[in-house]
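Repro:
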Amino acid sequence: MYIGVDVGTSSVKVLLVDEAQHVVGEASAPLTVERPHALWSEQTPSHWWNATKDALARLRAAAPAGFGAVRGMGLSGQMHGATLLDAQLRVLRPAILWNDGRSHAECAELERKEPRTREITGNAAMPGFTAPKLLWVARHEPDVFAKTAHVLLPKDWIRLQLTGELASDPSDAAGTLWLDVGGRRWSGEMLAATGLPLSAMPQVVEGSRPTGTLRPELSAEWGFSRPPVVAAGGGDNAAGAVGVGVVRAGQALVSIGTSGVVFLVTERFAPNPAHGVHAFCHAIPDTWHQMSVMLSSASCLSWVASATGAQSEAALVAEIEAQAPEPGTVLFLPYLSGERTPHNDPQAQGVFFGLTHDTTRARLGRAVLEGVAFAFADGLDALREVGGVPREITVIGGGSRSLFWMKILASVLGETLLVRERAELGPAFGAARLARLAVTGEPIEDVCVAPPVASRIEPDAALRRYYAGRIGPFRDLYRRLRTAFADGAA
């Protein structure tokens, strides 16, 4: 038995997986995001730990026999979050999250201090990454920065609570801007540009390898027969890819969760930051990936459902199918938290354009589904511009449950989408697979197989033609408003 733990933005999710890779039990516990100022996004690390313990308690109650037989635990989580600790491993301030936009000025400062930033890390400095956040803390909270002895990513802070070990994996560490991504090791130059010593970083361990075992007191408290091995794990997108078998060069996935990702596996480090494309390590050894990222994806559907008084996201999608089955004329810019690929614009905002007296809730919802799809097309085009051509595209995340939305997305992208069985399990399932690899040492290709295809969604020819004429106005709307976004932030 193996447990996967995914420390997400909106919840901590845990899965119990048996030797046949069947899910024996699952549980989750909610999290909330704190936004004390414009562009800020924070969480209190103790809330992650409380949610993790709560979710594991629920999992134990649901499957007590299997829970006690667990041999390994794997970790996944939201990337980029800056968790600052003092020399006694005490948290110094709330963690600054991946969708926090306050450190825009510090990005330029970082690239001035280290002109080889993009060469070393494979990425342009963006506010979501971890290193610019530390420059912001140094400037605005110097007392906190002076006390900072360690910086951990969210899942790695949970690892510290579980094992007492300071460790990370290359896929998550690649999102800090402190990693030499080609070499899969910390970069002294990037740390120096942020004013941090190498000692502030945890050890880097490949995602499929052990980072210690569960602390004996926790193992006894939770009723394990022996302390489980805790694998290094992976960042949420890399772990999600492992979960659906996207581990070989040319394989790709689209993740429709809180954020939106187009993820393409590469056999080598292939950076091209000029196009807003990320080049990161995969969660398995000697493998990398390119990735485009939009900061708001399924969260846009959650927002519009709440804002318009819909009973739920699923109820709103059903309403759209019934009342607005055909595409409309309302455009939606899905930049509720700013945007990364291709704009790198933390000031970008969400916009509805083209409203009339005839615009209904269903029409607003339809525009949101289409706007998110257009933003995914921007991300896929950015990958294509740097030579990334996917052989097949698997879809994961909560948005994959709506075949109606997937038909829109396939038509906008002009690509066949594969929704696989267990796709909704996401990064937690990949984390469980990494735990198994850490315990057994089996060949990766034997464990990280692709689940069967549950649905194959082909582009609709008529929709494809219509959306080909709509994506231009979508892009032009952002271009026209970019200056207004920046002026409003100022």
